[in-house]
Model the fold of this input.
Amino acid sequence: MTQSAAQRPVHWLPARVSDLREETATTRTVVFDVPDWPGHVAGQHVDVRLTAEDGYQAERSYSIASPPDGQRVELTIQRVPDGELSTYMVGEMRVGDEAELRGPVGGWFVWQPEESDPVLLVAGGSGLVPLMAMVRERSRAGSAAPFSLLYSVRSPEVVLYAEELARRARDGDGLNISLLYSDSAPEGTARPVGRIRPDDLAATGLPGGSGARAYVCGPTAFVEAVAGLLADHGYDPSSVRTERFGPTGG
Amino acid sequence: MGNMEPAHVDGNAAVGMFAEAFRTDVSAAVVTCASCGRSGRFADRHVYDRGPGLVARCPHCGEVNARMVRTPTDTWLELHGSTSWRIPTSPT
Amino acid sequence: MGVVTRGFVGRRDPATAQLPPGQYLTPDFPVLSAGPTPRIPLDQWRFTVTNETGSEHGWTWSEFLELPIEQPTVDIHCVTKWSKLGTRWQGVSLDTVLGPVQTRASYALVRSYGGYSTNLPLADLRGGKAWIAYRYDGGDLPAEHGGPARLLVPHLYFWKSAKWVRGIELRNDDMPGFWETMGYHSYGDPWRDQRYAGD
Done:
């Protein structure tokens, strides 16, 4: 990470919605145009603040889904029950609406194209978002670093970026993608349905000590379970970076 | 929910936050405790991270070796409970 | 005012309308700690108020239980953004505890078993605003929530309500405590969003 990126102060920047993409029944990507955006690195997140007409404010953190791209910042938001921001952003927000963003935040859970070592990405549900930023950045930068993505998801209906993942899997290009269905899977899926298992890690061909770095993102329980599996698979803790989604997703 | 979880995690859970101050992975750093004098890896500290800030304690004597707080504008770091930290030089 | 987000109303049911800025309601009671839960046998527990000249007033557990008790029901607000409304406590008012103490000090430094500390103006401990609480929600205060006894000062952020309280030092100068030396606000009024130094 560059010296200047780490030391830049962070404060609230005006942002305007420039595009919206429905991803699944409960998830939407909001594209913000942020005129003073200082730039970011794949894996970082941002705080979003919304202000009502009477001055009431609420803020939450979201991972950035897009690779660095000038003043464009994409967030993929999952609507959670009673989520104060997500209900609005997924259900009501329109192109042209305004918000404030503060960031980017996070200096550790990041990947940059200068790094050529193999990468193992392990995503639980919406934990895929910052890892997708890394996948997209790898592609944007033309990196040849071998990437393996294990994406644990309940069922086909809630797969995020389904078409893009399928396209990238077809393109190959040093990127391997495995969808690990935990509740129900499409007909004919070889892997038995269930949570991530040691076999899933073994299948990546990236054991610990091979020089690979692992990034794990998802709900706390998922991250802790996977961290344990990685340790069993020979990964030194210094080769594993984790980001836990806490209880305040909303 | 929050009430039944273990009180502390190990230093590995704190490595990310400390990286923002140290600019490197400190899990293998050797920390000498100012209270009991024993040395050990940062990764072995007992870390309390469910509060206003993060507290890393000596696994032998329980005293505080390091504290860190992230505010919106700054990172606060306090190391007076450590006599020294020896951080391996990382390859660039 | 700066940016306004069209159509955003926020979660405004009557309960949350009573919350300080930036807070959300929690149904549980999170356990936040800077260290392991101290286990203090009641026959060794002491609570001591020391004034600015060094003179002490102390109570053993059985002496403390003889003090008049109050039953405050209060809202509590943690700086990590959770709030809990209508929490029910039983304890001794600081007005009772400070009654026998001669002092002209303006500040207090509260100390806990396990090494935690926090500071606040003495005036914020007086006038029916603070208690040493040893019962919560109809039962003994659990150790993980600060038992045998904790300070309860609900008008300030809850990091000021020191768990496992062992004593209060009355001082002429304001000495920052455990979190106040690490970037947190010296006073900590949740209604003015005073989370960090300089807020």
Remarks:
- Helices of chain B lie at 15-22.
- The beta strands of chain B are 9-10, 30-33, 39-41, 46-48, 54-57, 64-70, 75-78, 82-86.
